[in-house]
UniProtKB/TrEMBL annotation:
UniProt keyword list: NADP, One-carbon metabolism, Oxidoreductase
Role: Key enzyme in folate metabolism. Catalyzes an essential reaction for de novo glycine and purine synthesis, and for DNA precursor synthesis.
Official protein name in the record: Dihydrofolate reductase
Cited PANTHER family: DIHYDROFOLATE REDUCTASE
Length: 176
């Protein structure tokens, strides 16, 4: 993969993760947090989305009012409502071009685990719903180097009965 990417529009990543960094189990979220889903929609509205094919498959359709860019090595993959790129640099370039034309404030990377690992070096902001539990899963968010990120906002979620506690946390990159 080429790291020859320098988007004009800031790259952000959005994720909900458990304390042990688990983000998914067999293509599904390990929890149902309606407030987090509303947060995701609000934060990604009118912004280009970059996601892997497995993440797209777990959603099953293009998300409305957003450019949906799916990264896959499968040259045969096509789906209505999405643009397909075969590596992350191409996906970020396409999203950047769209964001510049549409005056979107940032590009949103929304997973899964491998896309997050590849995109972390390009990200300037992280929107993380920190879910206060440890769960078993097969997809994880990469380790965050605390020397390179600083917390700039934390808002407590309002879990319903039986839901784990969670916080909406925003981190910004401090150094390269």
């Amino acid at each position: 993969m080429s790291t020859n990417v320098d988007p004009l529009v800031p790259v952000a990543m959005i994720v909900a993760m458990a304390r042990n960094r688990v983000i998914g189990v067999e293509g599904k979220l390990p929890w149902y947090l309606p407030e987090d889903l509303k947060f995701f929609k609000r934060m990604t509205q009118a912004k280009p989305l970059v996601m892997g094919r497995k993440t797209f498959a777990s959603i099953g359709k293009a998300l409305p009012n957003r450019l949906n860019v799916v990264v896959t090595r499968n040259a045969e993959f096509v789906h209505e409502g999405v643009r397909v790129c075969h590596d992350l640099p191409a996906a970020l370039a396409l999203a950047d071009q769209h964001a510049t034309i549409e005056a979107a404030e940032e590009i949103m990377v929304m997973g899964g685990g491998e896309i997050y690992r590849q995109a972390l070096p390009f990200a300037q902001r992280l929107y993380i719903t920190e879910v206060d539990c440890d769960v078993e899963g097969d997809a994880t968010f990469p380790e965050i180097d605390g020397r390179m990120w600083r917390e700039v906002q934390r808002v407590a979620g309002q879990p319903a009965e039986g839901q784990p506690h969670y916080d909406f946390v925003v981190y910004e990159r401090t150094a390269d």
